[in-house]
UniProtKB/TrEMBL annotation:
<dbReference type="GO" id="GO:0000139">
    <property type="term" value="C:Golgi membrane"/>
</dbReference>
<keyword id="KW-0812">Transmembrane</keyword>
<dbReference type="Pfam" id="PF01762">
    <property type="entry name" value="Galactosyl_T"/>
</dbReference>
<keyword id="KW-0328">Glycosyltransferase</keyword>
<dbReference type="GO" id="GO:0016758">
    <property type="term" value="F:hexosyltransferase activity"/>
</dbReference>
<feature type="signal peptide">
    <location>
        <begin position="1"/>
        <end position="29"/>
    </location>
</feature>
<keyword id="KW-0735">Signal-anchor</keyword>
<protein>
    <recommendedName>
        <fullName>Hexosyltransferase</fullName>
        <ecNumber>2.4.1.-</ecNumber>
    </recommendedName>
</protein>
<dbReference type="InterPro" id="IPR002659">
    <property type="entry name" value="Glyco_trans_31"/>
</dbReference>
<comment type="similarity">
    <text>Belongs to the glycosyltransferase 31 family.</text>
</comment>
<keyword id="KW-0472">Membrane</keyword>
<keyword id="KW-0732">Signal</keyword>
<keyword id="KW-0333">Golgi apparatus</keyword>
<keyword id="KW-0808">Transferase</keyword>
<dbReference type="GO" id="GO:0006493">
    <property type="term" value="P:protein O-linked glycosylation"/>
</dbReference>
<keyword id="KW-1133">Transmembrane helix</keyword>
Length: 438
């Protein structure tokens, strides 16, 4: 999760990112000698055989569907100088030529926005996560333990009354929050979470009913004024649930288990539980299409879907100074089971109560994503699917993929970035798509 700034995992990610950018930069230098003035970091990969090229005269807005695209030099720089970076729409007097191996590499912007379920095709959807070799000999660990009986029935202190009763909820969005983050909550409510309750989305219809809840623990020593404000917020929005356990980073696992338990008790008909971090934006209509696809792909009532951690074997933090340290007693192996990135993941309705009952009988560990989508899900033998359309942590160039309905989630957004991305969604334009190397 990207919020956990400056822990070791974050620094590792940052390093990997820097390395990846360097490699990408180098590969551009190598693969695009001809177009080096106008080539884009995003598209300019293979330079295709001349005889295979198709040319398009452009007077509409196009978005490239794959990396096998290049642009002809002179004409293209004219478009660039018009300031319409991503739009590639030529003025009537110029004729911009885009070359590609196949017409299919392009979708017009209109097409992209019109039929979003089409965008889900060919995105490398749904890789099944198999059992890991290195944990195969430890199946006795991934089983309910005698003598472990975690208390998960904490009392509800603030309730979102009858939230799911009024209509058939399809998607329950659960966002862990803390008292001090009113500004973050308001920003989310104002932007992509508007689709909750209203079913509104810029120029698209949210087909299914969406509800959301911000989840809190109880922070000892909270000022009475802050609690009063939170209560007022709860009365106003009816989207706050506070549960009676100590709210802390190390208790995030308890918080998500409380959210799952609450969903099982008070929103039990919701087809999907979607965990979303406060710094993450969801393309709600696309997410719904995506989950409908996932249900077919999973071939099972119970499943979890997200983006698998980019390290094949996510390592357990043993450094005692680290916020996410996990002791040998809690989890004895060097690596976690493959798990999902924590910024957003979805759990099917049938899997929700199973994860909660499993979590009562195994040792809890603090990193919530590793516990819920790794250890608990593996113990309960719930199938896991990984999909690329959940953006990877911290890669800003994927921004526009949310706008163009190609990614269901985008993370590492601060408030300014969130507002900017939402404006892009609302206006259905996005400037970061093509970056020119000068
Ligand atoms: C470009 O615009 C002209 C006139 O509006 C139209 O006849 C033509 O079909 C368009 N070409 C493409 C590729 O859309
Ligand atoms: C644009 O490119 C085409 C094909 O390469 C060329 O025929 C045409 O003259 C160019 N137009 C301008 C305005 O440079
Ligand atoms: C949208 O695209 C999908 C997949 O290509 C297709 O099956 C469906 O019929 C399309 N829907 C509309 C309304 O065009
Ligand atoms: C699992 O155990 C078997 C037999 O004890 C051993 O031969 C094998 O190497 C072990 N596999 C791993 C991945 O540790
Ligand atoms: C987690 O919550 C439980 C229940 O309130 C509490 O006893 C425990 O101290 C908390 N742990 C941390 C690390 O905050």
């Amino acid at each position: 999760m990207c919020q956990k700034l400056f822990n070791r995992r974050f620094l590792q990610n940052l390093f990997a990112l820097a390395l990846a950018s360097l490699l990408m930069y180098l590969s551009l230098q190598i693969s695009c000698p001809v177009f080096s003035n106008t080539c884009t970091t995003y598209y300019c990969k293979p330079v295709v055989q001349k005889s295979d090229l198709l040319s398009f005269q452009l007077n509409r807005t196009f978005v490239a569907k794959s990396s096998k695209v290049s642009f002809s030099g002179d004409n293209f720089s004219q478009v660039a100088s018009s300031g319409e970076m991503n739009k590639l729409s030529a003025s009537p007097t110029s004729s911009t030529v885009i070359t590609s191996t196949s017409r299919d590499l392009f979708l017009s912007r209109e097409e992209l926005l019109k039929n979003i379920s089409r965008n889900l095709d060919g995105l490398g959807l749904f890789e099944t996560i198999d059992d890991e070799e290195y944990l195969k000999n430890h199946s006795d660990f991934f089983a309910p333990r005698v003598g472990v009986d975690n208390y998960l029935d904490h009392q509800i202190l603030i309730q979102a009354e009858d939230l799911c009763l009024r209509d058939e909820t399809f998607l329950l969005i659960a966002i862990p929050s803390v008292i001090g983050h009113k500004e973050e909550r308001d920003a989310i409510r104002r932007t992509w979470l508007r689709s909750s309750e209203t079913n509104a989305w810029p120029r698209a219809r949210v087909k299914e009913k969406v509800k959301h809840v911000f989840f809190f623990g109880y922070k000892k020593g909270s000022r009475e004024e802050d609690l009063k404000n939170l209560l007022a917020e709860s009365v106003f929005y009816n989207d706050i649930v506070m549960v009676d356990f100590e709210d802390s980073y190390r208790n995030l696992t308890l918080k998500m288990l409380a959210a799952l338990r609450w969903t099982g008790n008070f929103c039990e008909r919701a087809e999907f539980f979607l965990k979303v971090d406060e710094d993450t934006m969801i393309n709600v209509p696309l997410m719904i299409e995506f989950l409908l696809h996932a249900r077919v792909a999973a071939k099972s009532e119970q499943f979890v879907v997200g983006r698998k951690h980019h390290h094949e074997k996510p390592e357990v933090v043993r450094n005692k100074d680290d916020r996410w340290v996990v002791g040998d007693l809690e989890y004895p192996f060097r690596y976690y089971p493959q798990y999902m990135l924590g910024h957003s993941y979805a759990i099917s309705r049938a899997a929700v109560p199973v994860i909660v009952s499993t979590a009562r009988r195994i040792r809890l560990v603090a990193p919530e994503d590793a516990f819920i989508t790794g250890i608990a899900v593996k113990t309960a033998r719930i199938p896991r699917l990984s999909a690329r359309s959940f953006s990877m942590c911290c890669v800003v160039k994927y921004d526009c993929d949310v706008v163009w309905n190609k990614k269901v989630a985008m993370t590492s957004l601060d408030l300014l970035h969130l507002e900017k991305l939402w404006t892009s969604v609302a206006q259905q334009s996005c400037d970061d798509k093509i970056v020119f190397l000068k």
